[in-house]
Amino acid sequence: MKISPVAAAVAAIFLTACSNDKPAAEAPRPVRTVELRYDNAREANRYVGTVQARHEVDQAFRVGGKIVSRKVDVGRAVREGDVLAVLDDTDYRLAEEAARQQLVAAATQARQAESDRSRLEALKADGSVSAADGERAASEARKARAAAEAAARQLELAANRLKYTVLRASRSGVVTQVRFEIGQVIPEGQPGVAIAAEGEPEIVVDVPEDQVGAFSTARFRASLASAPQEKFDVTLRELSPQAAAQTRTYRARLKPASARRLPLGATATLVAERAEAPDAKVAAIPAAALTQSNGQPALWVVRAAGAEPAGTVEIVPVVVHGYRNDEVLVSGLPDGQLVVAAGVHKMAPGLRVALSDSARGETFKQAAR
Predict the structure, then answer these.
(1) Distance in angstroms (rounded) separating the CA atoms of residues 276 and 268
(2) Where are the alpha helices (DSSP H) in the chain?
(3) pLDDT given for residue 213 in this prediction
(4) Which of 225, 258, 275 is the last residue of a domain?
């Protein structure tokens, strides 16, 4: 059976009229926000450094030779006197034995010379020998005694060199470097093991030449890469008076203001702050939150709908007071205002947004907090 075109058109109109479905409303877009908090403006610079020990000593053999034993690895805690490594001591034992035999020979000659002097002294009394012979015998006796003393010192030196084939820790601490392996031949005095004292950790950073003046009078706070939220005060202990030849930076060493254990070698972030005018109230926000409206700096403000975790966004102009690292200092909005912190290029006036529990009310305060 054929259906006429007129009947098909009527049926289509009827079906369309009977449909009551409406397009679904667009779901709110999740956004990350920060809450503005005003404080006195602070000029701050960030530096990345490492945790080092204030006292670190390189241990070295006082004699050269072949490594036959290595007792420590990096990270091991050692006490003063612990054996770190051992050299092949065959040649040094032979040298000690040779020095001992030389001492025996020199001592024998000294006794013989003293005996000869005594006999000539007795014969000189009755005129059997001349005074010159007596003086010559006394001189030979003194020379033999001096040779015996020299041989004794040579034996001590040989014994010391034999003792130096065992490298012992000169202080307690943790091993930070080991620069040799078993079988390697090393020269005398070459640094082989570095030992750092754990009790006095410091943060070491390099300061650019144009920031040294402000750095020396700044207030410092630091955090570790492993725990960036845990900030702690540090104080400047040492600032190099001379710039490094290659980098033209000044090495600074800072210690924790209170007793604190810091893992050696850890990466640390140092914030150096210097207070400016006390009446300059600004809020520090992530630089990614800043956008433009009509060529002027602006922020996307979240207008919350009561207690609901959602709202709409509106672009509002602000005043920019300055930049520091990944932050921008602004004013012109009420304290506590929520602004969009990321993805500002996807915002549009009136766009519905949702605040997740992790993002809602998040505060981005000054680094000085």
Answers:
(1) 26
(2) 5-18, 90-125, 131-163, 212-215
(3) 85
(4) 275
User: What tokens appear for 146 in the block?
Assistant: 């001096």
CB 243 within 8 A of CB 250: yes
Q: How many domains does the chain have?
A: 4
Question: By C-alpha distance, which of 254, 255, 256, 240 is closest to 208?
Answer: 240
- Mean pLDDT of the region 324-353: 85
- Are 261 and 293 contacting, i.e. CB atoms less than 8 angstroms apart? no
Q: pTM score, two decimals?
A: 0.55
Q: Mutual orientation of helices 90-125 and 131-163 as an angle, nearest 10°?
A: 160
Instruction: Give the integer Cα–Cα distance in Å for 288 and 343.
Output: 8
Residue 168 in contact with residue 61, Cβ under 8 Å?
Answer: no
Question: By the 8 A CB rule, do 95 and 218 touch?
Answer: no
Q: Report which of 169, 140, 156, 159 is spatially closest to residue 57, judged by C-alpha positions.
A: 169
| Nearest Cα to Cα of residue 84 among 73, 75, 94 | 73
Q: How many residues does the chain have?
A: 369
**Domain span including residue 186:** 56-88+171-196
Query: Which of 112, 144, 163 is the endpoint of a domain?
Result: 163
Strand positions, DSSP E, 160-248: 166-168, 173-178, 185-186, 191-196, 201-208, 219-224, 227-239
Paired residues of 175 in beta bridges: 195
Q: What is the pLDDT of residues 158-174, one digit of tens each?
A: 999 999 999 999 988 89
Ramachandran area for residue 315 (φ above 0: left; ψ -120 to 50: alpha; else beta): beta
- Per-residue pLDDT, averaged over 290-306, amounts to 85
Same domain, 264 and 230: yes
- Percent of the chain with pLDDT strictly greater than 90: 41
Residue type, 325: N
Residue 369 domain-assigned (yes or no): no
End-to-end Cα separation, the chain, in angstroms: 83
